[in-house]
Each structure stands twice: as structure tokens, then as C-alpha cells.
Amino acid sequence: MGLGLQCAFTIGCSLKIPALPVKEIDLGSRIGWIERFTAVPVDSESPVPAYLQLEQDLRRQIQSGRQAHGARLPPEQTLARLYGVSRVTLRQALQRLAAAGLVSRRHGIGTIITPSPQVSLDLRPMESVTSQLRQAGYHTAVSVLAQGIERAPPEAAQALQLTNDQTAVIVRRLLRAEGSPISIISSWLPRVLFPGLESVSLSPAEDSLWSVLATTYRHAPAHGKNMLEVIASTAHEAELLQIGSGVPLIRLSCIVSDRKSRPIEYTTALWITTGVRLHF
Q1: Distance of CA 246 to the CA centre of its chain
Q2: Contact (CB, 8 A) for 5 and 124
Q3: Cβ–Cβ < 8 Å for 202, 169
Q4: How far is CA 29 from the centre of its chain?
Q5: pTM
Q6: E runs forming strands in 178-257
Q7: Mean confidence (pLDDT) of the chain
Q8: 182 in a domain, yes or no?
Q9: Do 92 and 226 share a domain, yes or no?
């Protein structure tokens, strides 16, 4: 996928966030500490484990930028009281956040919010995002989450001009920058134009797919038409992106055409909303 902007651009919003009961604590102006902390207490009747509820609420605050990078979270005893959990449960949540690179735990200091990578991308040229990131000096990695044949969803089928009996090749990838997941990229391609693509081994580079389309199938991407909207992450997307469930995501949809203006790819990219700047 190369997120290029050469035609029309549309922006929409479909984000709905329910109001939740909260508890607040004022920590004053102690140097290095968060001055005010807001917590959504754990729901003991929820089927979601307490440590996961706690983790998701802390992720929301960190990913939304509500809490500044480099600041210290309240002491464990205070957090446990605010969330209504034991310190064992709290530490389980903090360990998962530390493993995701969102916080660092330092003996004698406390839990510190770590900065996320600041990524800047230009959507105007037909250039893959990994190429831009590498040129900017970022270390990137791409994991293939799915690659196979399936019936395209309605919006993809319409964009690719597929008939009811035509299937598509799906390639879904997870993009990381500096070790942190920043985007889930899902591409649907007409199987009739790319036979056997579902079995082609793709290298761990986001632009590998475009290289295969151009060299193996002689359909080089040439134009892109984008649509941007803001959505709430699902539980599965949140797990992959290491954010809280329901956290806002930028959903960028793109119809890619070849030089003959024939649609060859329909892509959706889900981007985290912190640490990423998109230029149009």
C-alpha cells in the first residue's frame, strides 16, 4: 500500500465514546508527578478481567496524550485505591504496559510514561509509508497477519468493481516504527488480476506488495483516492496496536489504480492518533 493523494479527499467521523464514571485525584505541583489523575474504576460485574480494564483505561490516557510523556503516574497504593483493585492486580496491568513500551518502571522512582515515536507522513506522493519512514531514519518492521482468498466486504467490492461471483486476495499487515505498532493495513486485490498472489511470499517490508504487483503482475500503482474518518478501536484492533479498546483511530481508505485507471487495490489503514502526523 502506498498512501497517495492524487484525486478527491473526503473526511468523516463515526466515533462515539460513552460517558463513564470517573474518580479524580489532585496531586498538586510535585515536580515530575502528574498534577491531576482521572481513573475509571474497575467494574467488578464485567466479564473483562480487572487487570485488563485497568490496563485499558491507562492506555487510553497515555495514547490520548492526556498524560504527558516523562511524567510519573501516582504511587501504586494511590492507583490501587482509585481503581478499586489490589496492588497485585495493579502490578499485572503495569507490567503489560511496560512490555508494550508505554511506561517504564524504575525502582525508587515509580512508573514513568515513555514517549511514543513521532511519525510524520506525506500522503500526497504515491510512495509507500515504509519508504518514507526509512528515509526519515526510522526503524520499521512489517508483520503479515493474514494472506488468502475471501469475499471482499461491500465497500471493497464496489471500489474494485467486482461482480458477485468474484473473490479477492486479502493481505493484512501490522506496521511498527521503532518497535511500536502504529498501523494495521488491510489490502483487498482482484483475484482475477493477481492469480496466485495469496501464495506469494512477501518480504518484511510494507512496500513489498507494490513491488510484486509491478514486477510480477505488471500492474504498477499509479493513482490513489483517499477517504479519512475517525473511528473507535475494536478489542482486537486495540490488542494489535497495544492501545485501549475504544481509543480513537484514524481510518484511511484508499482506492489504488494503475496507469490505465483500473482499480487494482482497496486498502484501509488504521493509524494510532498519537505520535503520527499525516500531511495532505
Answers
A1: 12
A2: yes
A3: no
A4: 34
A5: 0.67
A6: 180-190, 223-232, 248-257
A7: 82
A8: yes
A9: no
